[in-house]
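User: quick one, fold this
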Amino acid sequence: MTAVRKIIALLIIVLIGLPILFGVVWVVGLTKATVSSEFISELPQEIIREIPEIAEEIFEEGQNERVIRDENTRAWFRAAAEAGVSPKQLMADIGLLDWLEYELAESLDEVGEVLRGERRARPITIDLRPLKDILMRDEIDQYLMRVLEKLPPCDEEKERQWIQIGRWGLEDRELPACRPDMEVAREALMEWRMDAVAEMENEVDIFEDVEFIPFGMSRALTVLSSFLFVFPALFIFIGSLIAATSPASFFRWSGVSTFLGALPALLLAFFVKHISLWGLRYVPWYSDSTTWSTDLHELILEKTSWIPMRIIDQIFSPVVTVAAIVCVLGIVLFAISLMVRNKPRRKAITSVQAPPPVSLEKAPEEEASQKAELTEKAEEEVEEAEEQEFEKLEGEKPKTPADETPESEQDESEEPEKK
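Assistant:
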């Protein structure tokens, strides 16, 4: 019967409890990561502040032939440098820096305040129309024309490529590093920018149709998602209760099941986190885009690698933390089972009225006394048997004539005495 109970408990825990626990660990961890103000508000603002400096570094190193081996890509960087306008200055001239540092940063600050519970939730809209207007400004056309003028003239083949780009768009084609007909070039670049702007949304709505949430949205959603642990805990409790034969075995089943359910989630989150960081190094080599060279992809990744690293760390670190906490809980339950296991034994020993322990020195004396008692009992039994035998013999002895007095005489002798 005990074996059947353990099999049923094992099926409940393995087939239901552990898979649900694995999924809940990931859900709670990812919820904590994606609704945090650090991920939604603070990290984007940090990226915004670093964009101008990153662009400057890429612009400077892109002219180095030891960094960019592709001659076509390096020619574009040289022409941009000869145009006399740096990327940071261009972003300031067209108003891109102002939009990033003020309008977008202000909206992200409001989002962070709502997530932290510093202000009530209300609809927040990030307007992208100013960004579209910035990308279509004439200053960009003028800058691109100055860059094209610094390029060498195009031959027939490259001229044909420029015409195709003007008709069909850039798509995955490589932009030839030569000076075509200016009208053709302006048409091609305008088509490319219009396609990029058309793919952008006009605005992004955040916290739309969201009611008031106390203690901050980030904390509230994290706490609500934590209640999902009730479901795996229920099945683990039922399975442990079925299989347990004592309080110690109940805690042992619960602890081992909890630990084994959270351990795969911990290992998978740790593995995915580090394999993602490792895989970032090979992204340029597996890119299908031929617009830019692999060397340029490597350069951009080198200067911006901290951004995907921060994002990956922000996403998977909470999962690792939640899984580690659940594993520690399982170890604690197992430790409790070791503490509880000795208590029933101590109670059993004290409750049973066991005979007092006999020392080795007194054992022979007690054995001799017991033998003496047995001997005395045997002697008493023998004496009682002899007395009984003697009485029996006395009763069977024949009577003498003197003892046999007639009843009539006895009556006569008794009558005078009565008178």
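User: anything notable?
Assistant: The chain has 16 helices and two strands.
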